[in-house]
Amino acid sequence: MSMTAPRRTGALEGLRVIELAGEWSPMAGKILAELGADVIVVEPLGGHHTREWGPFLEDRPDPDGSLWWWAAHTSKRAVELDLSSSSGRDAFLRLLQSGDVLLDSEVPGALEKLGLDEVTLRGARPDLIWTTVSTFGLSDPRSLLPATDLTLLAGAGPVWMCGYDDHGLPPVRGEGGQAMNAAGLHAVIATMAALFDRDRHEQGRRIDVSVNAALNVTTEGAPYEWIAMGATLSRQTCRHASATPTMPVQVQASDGRYVSTGFPPRHVREVTALLGWLRDLELGESSEAVLLEMAEAQGGIDFTRIKTDALQAEMLAAGRQALRAIAAMLPAAQFFVEGQERGLAVAVINSPAAMLDDPHVIERHAWSDVEHPDLERVIRYPPAPFRSSVTPYRIRSRAPKLGEHNHEL
Fold it and tell me: Tell me, what DSSP letter sits at residue 126?
């Protein structure tokens, strides 16, 4: 069995990935595909159950209209195979002969029960990179239990870390399939490392990615503070969780919209820029300006001493308060543009709908407009996770329809 590779350009051009349709691995396949790999999604007959996940185009349930499927499977091809039958397994092994990577998120042991164990798979492709994304890892019995995006986010820590200063409000769950996204990024990194290793040693690898571990890493310093100091971090509005409260960064601008003052100035260039902004707005005689002038005179703020030197802490706080005062005087968009022009890390907070028309986002060519010839329309997709110039990351095609490429088998 040989599927002709489509014409592609990208860093991974010439690489073929066989992806077993699943819940936790699609983002990994998407990233590899949009870096240039030829990714073929293998679905069971009738399609994978995630095609039934909404929302749907124009709110009409349709296996080819799932927006979840669209977002997770751009730039791929799709075929249907019945792996429970001997003919389906034989067809899969023939397809695998042309593959460099097998990507799956099956329950540990599920493929082995079908007769597709590692010995059998390597018989088809000895130097295969086999990457499995499971909820808790291949050897953890918890991977055999039911799990959802929400339960994984809650158990691994991100839900505890996200929310508001008012802990009377419930914590906030990140939307958009964060469990799949975090695990997918780690799966890509590990797979790429294994491919580089294969170029040197000409041998395959089995890669074991835990969704739980990938999500726990996203809590940044929380595990280390608990292990090293026994400190429990608490969620805060629009800023990192902390064992002790830090100054708020989200404030209302003069037009009622919200902005983020970001991290207050500490380097002398930033302090000088903020002082200039205060003076331009006739706030140069404020107490914040006086403290910032002291910081400028000493060459900036020594961030390593703010917990032991009260003056350093006061100067840092003055920078935050100065930005809050400026934000209260300006419309949100003006605060953002002028702050960025002065080299200060401030931001405007947009609703999802407002992001589509935001001039800054549009100017950076963030959105991807994807042709849907079957619908005779172009649909705007979220931006790439990163940008590169020589081998660009880009969406190459819409997600495949059910069985769209069966004829190529």
Answer: T
Residue 373's identity, in one-letter code, is P
Rounded CA gap, 61 and 65, in Å? 7
> Is the Cα torsion angle 362, 364, 366, 372 positive or negative in sign?
positive
What are the residues facing 211 on neighbouring strands? none
Cβ distance 112 to 93 under 8 Å?
no
Quickly count helices (H) and strands (E) in the chain.
Answer: 16, 13
pLDDT single digits (tens) 181-224: 999 999 999 999 999 999 999 899 999 999 999 999 999 888 88
Helices marked H in 230-344 — which ranges?
A: 268-280, 287-297, 310-329, 332-341
Distance of CA 295 to the CA centre of its chain: 37
Q: Which amino acid is at 288?
A: E
What is the torsional sign of CA 384, 388, 389, 394? negative
Maximal C-alpha separation, the chain: 82
Query: Which stretch of DSSP H or E encloses residue 153?
Result: helix 149-156
Task: Give the list of residues 6+ apart from residue 90 with CB closer than 8 angstroms, or none.
Answer: none
Give me the half-sphere count of Cα atoms (radius 13 Å) on the Cβ side of residue 292.
30
Query: At 72, is the pLDDT very low, low, confident or very high (cuts 50, 70, 90)?
Result: very high
Contact 15, 98 (CB under 8 A): no
| Contacts for 147 with CB less than 8 Å, ≥ 6 apart | 135, 211
* Assigned CATH topology for domain 16-219+386-408: Rossmann fold (3.40.50)
Contacts of 225 (CB under 8 A, 6+ apart): 231, 233, 243
| Mean pLDDT score, 119-140 | 96
Q: What is the pLDDT of residues 202-212, one digit of tens each?
A: 899 999 999 99
Contact 245, 323 (CB under 8 A): no
DSSP run (H or E) holding 212: helix 211-217
Report which of 150, 142, 148, 136 is spatially closest to residue 210, judged by C-alpha positions: 136
The mean of the pLDDT values for the chain is 93
Query: For 316-334, what is each residue's pLDDT tens digit?
Result: 999 999 999 999 999 999 9
| Domain spans of the chain, in order of start | 16-219+386-408, 239-348
C-alpha to C-alpha distance for 233 and 244, rounded to whole angstroms: 8
